[in-house]
Amino acid sequence: MNSKASQQLQVPPGQKVRLADYSTDTFEGSAALDKEQVKQATEQLQQRLSELQEKLYAEGKQSLLIILQARDGGGKDSTVSRVMGAFNPNGVHVANFKAPTDLELQHDFLWRIHQQVPSHGMIAVFNRSHYEDVLVTRVHGLIDDARAQQNLEHIVNFEKLLSDAGTRIVKFYLHLSPEEQKARMEDRLNDPAKHWKFNPSDLKDRALWHEYTAAYEDALATSRSYAPWYIIPADRKWLRDYLISEILVQTLEEMNPQFPTAHFEAAYYLIEDIPSR
Description:
One of its GO terms (molecular function) is polyphosphate kinase activity. One of its GO terms (biological process) is polyphosphate metabolic process. The chain has 277 residues and is α/β, with parallel strands linked by helices. The chain contains eleven helices and five strands; from the N terminus they run ααβαβααβααβαααβα. It has helices at residues 5-9, 35-59, 76-82, 102-105, 111-114, 136-139, 145-164, 178-190, 201-207, 209-220, 237-255; strands at 63-70, 92-96, 123-127, 167-175, 229-233. α2 runs parallel beside α11.
């Protein structure tokens, strides 16, 4: 099963898009997809992800940075759990970016980000990222439009630097409808086991839905061939997981990691049994 969704969902390099033109629960040709078949296909893709990650780790010459951005309730945490769970923990780390600390505020906004980028052989997952500094800060008036555009230029240059140093970047915007966000927020309120996931400030951000849409559309224009954005329909979690898995497999296959060549002749070595006492 191969939906070829990456071409449909990828934001054209350097172009601004209208989020209203992208569906939150489907994509062209997906209407006939069967949920159980898609779940089975996702499991196969995750097995392939595991194989490719092992080669990436063993090769130790390039790295992969996965960026997840979404509105509140968009599914970033569950994406990390369900999709990134295919990776060996020894070769991946997840960075969660929240409000900057006093120390971080004494540096440029990319200082704390650069410390979390993956070293060669590794995969890093950013659950929120440097894009928060052109989203939350802009919507809440902490920076003006001119500063936001300046930060976007810095981000493009920063990602080019990482690319030139051997880090492949893939960016996912989990595209959620306001109706689905409302349902997920209500689910958190109605289930005591999920109360910890609810933050009253999320309601303030929900009231700024259109302002966030405008900010995201500007951020998505940073899509480049070396750091593409993908707009993932996120209302249906099983479809979201499949699409992200497919795109990650395609990305790693393009990177084409290889096991390193051994510098010894395996046939010359004999591993003897341990004698009993």
